[in-house]
Write a structure and sequence with these properties.
Blueprint (H helix, E strand, L loop, with lengths): L1 H29 L10 H12 L2 H15 L1
Helix pairs in contact: 1-2
Length: 70
C-alpha cells in the first residue's frame, strides 16, 4: 500500500498547481502590474513539487515498456 502512495503525490501537486494558476489570473488582472504568465509563487512551487515526485511514474513507464518489448 505504501508503494502506491508514491503515485498519488505528482498528480495531486499538478492539480493543486492548476488550481493555484486559475486563482492567479484573477489576482494578476486586478493588480497594477499585470504579468503575461499566470504563475505566482504558489503555482511555481506546486509545479516543481509535481516534477520532484515524478520518478515513480517514470519508473513505472520504463518498466512497462521493457515488459512489452520482450
Amino acid at each position: 500500500m505504501a508503494g502506491w502512495l508514491a503515485y498519488a503525490a505528482s498528480p495531486t501537486f499538478a492539480i493543486m498547481g492548476l488550481i493555484a494558476a486559475s486563482d492567479a489570473t484573477r489576482i494578476a488582472l486586478c493588480s497594477a502590474a499585470t504579468s503575461i504568465l499566470p504563475i505566482d509563487g504558489m503555482t511555481a512551487m506546486y509545479l516543481l513539487m509535481s516534477l520532484f515526485h515524478l520518478p515513480p511514474w517514470l519508473r513505472l513507464a520504463f518498466t512497462a515498456e521493457r515488459v512489452s518489448n520482450q
